[in-house]
């Protein structure tokens, strides 16, 4: 099974500053036949279900603000919030959908400094 | 607008079977484009994928739960269901149903979740 490891577990960022979350998979989630990375990012606010932000590692879901961006390939990925807003306080999860199973990272809690 | 709604008992006794249903509106579970999943989240912890069902009844489960799980689909009622047998306190969690965008794809729609507590 693929293991997804996020870092850091939590971070505090000032409003308007950049937040960066890393996700590492135990094996590559890049499918060579279509050159796609089978990696998604979700945002979960308290009392709410997760919300899809990014898929195929860098494709923003419809309606997601452009301050959210995803990058990386193979085993190393990054979610960047370019200018943190108060409404971005949440836990963020990466998730692979490469194989027969689905695995999430342990989550990264983003707070305001 | 696609909506998913979980329902079922909020309290289950140890060793018994947890049963939940997810009613789908705004879409058809018969749609061959999507897969229908269950995901759980213990209080204060992260997300664990349980498994999915396709409209044909085909399934795929998390190996760590496979021996205790059955996911089924009822196309006539436009819903799908989860059964988890021989539960323990470790199965206490918020259980979400979700739509997977394809055979290998992320989850684009989620229910609000149903809290199930395992306790005598």
Low-confidence stretches of chain A: none
Quickly count the helices of chain B: 0
The rough form of chain B would be described as globular
What's the average pLDDT of chain B?
Answer: 96
Low-confidence stretches of chain B: none
> Quick one: overall form of chain A?
globular
Radius of gyration of chain B: 13 Å
Strand-residue fraction of chain B?
over 45%
Radius of gyration of chain A, Cα only, in angstroms? Answer: 13 Å
* Strand elements of chain B, count: 11
The biggest beta sheet of chain B reads:
7 strands, mixed
Q: Which bin fits the share of residues in helices of chain A?
A: under 10%
- Count of strand segments of chain A: 13
Order of helices and strands of chain A: EEEEEEEEEEEEE
Seen as an oligomer or otherwise, the chain set is heterodimer
Order of secondary-structure elements of chain B: EEEEEEEEEEE
Distance between the termini of chain A: 36 Å
Beta percentage of chain A is over 45%
What's the total helix number of chain A? 0
How would you describe this structure in keywords?
heterodimer; A: 113 residues; mainly beta; seven-stranded mixed β-sheet; 13 strands; globular; B: 120 residues
């Amino acid at each position: 099974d693929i293991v997804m490891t996020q870092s850091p577990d939590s971070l505090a960022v000032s409003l308007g500053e950049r937040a960066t979350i890393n996700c590492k998979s135990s094996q590559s989630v890049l499918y060579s036949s279509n050159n796609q990375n089978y990696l998604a990012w979700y945002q979960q606010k308290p009392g709410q279900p997760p919300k899809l932000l990014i898929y195929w590692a860098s494709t923003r879901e419809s309606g997601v603000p452009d301050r959210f961006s995803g990058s990386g390939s193979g085993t190393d990925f990054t979610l960047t919030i370019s200018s943190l807003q108060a409404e971005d306080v949440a836990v963020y999860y990466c998730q692979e959908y490469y194989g027969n199973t689905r695995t999430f990272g342990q989550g990264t809690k983003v707070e305001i400094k | 607008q696609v909506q998913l709604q979980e329902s079922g008992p909020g309290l289950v006794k140890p060793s018994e079977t947890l049963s939940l249903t997810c009613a789908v509106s705004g879409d058809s579970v018969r749609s061959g484009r999507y897969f229908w999943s269950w995901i759980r989240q213990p209080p204060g912890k992260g997300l664990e994928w349980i498994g999915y069902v396709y409209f044909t009844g085909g399934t795929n489960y998390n190996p760590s739960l496979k021996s205790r799980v059955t996911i089924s689909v009822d196309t006539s009622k436009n819903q799908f269901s989860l059964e988890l047998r021989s539960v323990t306190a470790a199965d206490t969690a918020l259980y979400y149903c979700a739509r997977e965008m394809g055979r290998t794809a992320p989850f684009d729609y989620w229910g609000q979740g149903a809290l199930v507590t395992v306790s005598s």
